Amino acid sequence: MLDIRERTRLRRLLYAKPTIILLAFLVALLSHGAWGVYQKSKEAMAKQEKAEKELAGLLAREQELKGDIARLSSEEGVEEEIRERFMVAKEGEKVMIITDPDKDAVHTVTVNDEPPTFVEKMMGAVGFGGE
């Protein structure tokens, strides 16, 4: 065991101002390092969350594009897209362009170029027909 003189000397050394200042400096240094790690952790979590949201958006876009590719792989899908984008009609069809004076949107309607049947003429005469 330590005798009284050695214990007193040890206490004086531990409670001396330079020792306390050194310990306070070490605590501050460790606290600063821990705070830096905490900040970087928060930034990394925010970046990960942002990346996950972006990934979800990209996956949804991929599914949408796969659907478009599947639709455009068929003859009907290509025809539908051409009609929609370029407002064209097949041979034997007429194109009617209907505009809304309040809006800038233009709607197109495709009608057959065949003459109306007897029933269609009669329906038109009484007010139920289209022509």
Protein topology:
Blueprint: H1 4-14, H2 17-72, H3 75-86, E1 93-99, E2 106-112, H4 118-125
Antiparallel strand pairs: 1-2
| Gyration radius over CA | 41 Å
Class from helix and strand fractions: mainly alpha
**Number of helical stretches of at least 4 residues:** 4
N-to-C span: 117 Å
Query: In percent, how much strand structure appears in the residues?
Result: 5-15%
Strand order of the largest sheet: 1-2
The tally of structural domains comes to 2
Can you summarize the main beta sheet? 2 strands, antiparallel
- As residue ranges, the low-confidence spans are none
SSE order in H/E notation? Answer: HHHEEH
User: If you average the pLDDT, what whole number results?
Assistant: 86
- Helix percent reads 55-70%
Strand tally: 2
What overall geometry do the principal axes of the alpha carbons give? rod-shaped
Organism: Candidatus Lloydbacteria bacterium RIFCSPHIGHO2_02_FULL_54_17
Coiled coil: 41-75
InterPro entries: FtsL/DivIC
Protein name: Septum formation initiator
